[in-house]
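Mods, move this if it's the wrong board.
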Amino acid sequence: MNNRSKKIKQDMIAAMRVADISPQLIYAYERTGFLLSKEGYQSLSPEDKAEYDAAIEEYFAKDDKA
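Not the wrong board. Structure tokens:
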């Protein structure tokens, strides 16, 4: 990932926090690059859904350990 892409991702995460997006969705975005609506989630391939769902599960598993 080049510096410009990193900056865009950092800015997106900052905006998501300001917008009070759920932390698990921010985490999933960080892990997968997917920022999804319900309709967007439904249109994902099975592989992408599995990746996104795994990121959400990882967030909660990490949170439970804290």
